[in-house]
Amino acid sequence: MMFLGTALVLLFSDPMVDVLSEVGARTGIPAFYVSFVVAPLASNASELIAA
Questions:
Q1: What is the pLDDT of residue 17?
Q2: 51 to each of 9, 28, 34, 45, how far by Cα in Å?
Q3: 33-45 tens-digit pLDDT
Q4: Cβ-contact 31, 24 below 8 angstroms
Q5: Would you call 44 helix, strand, or coil by DSSP?
Q6: Cβ count near 35 (within 10 Å)
Q7: Which residues, other chains included, contact 41 with Cβ-Cβ below 8 Å and sequence gap of 6+?
Q8: Cα dist from 39 to 3, 6, 12, 20, 36, whole Å
Q9: Which sign does the torsion angle of CA 35, 37, 40, 46 carry?
Q10: Could you tell me if 29 and 38 are in contact, meaning their C-beta atoms sit under 8 angstroms apart?
């Protein structure tokens, strides 16, 4: 299971970084803000809505 999880992270992390970089470039939001504010909020959106 650990190997499978690691493989999934390796598979999906590079496209995710590319998408976040593209979002920052298209919207004019600095990459730091996208990485440390927008991405965590998006990943926890379901928890924020449910609370």
A1: 86
A2: 28, 30, 23, 10
A3: 888 888 888 888 8
A4: yes
A5: coil
A6: 14
A7: 48
A8: 25, 20, 14, 8, 6
A9: negative
A10: yes
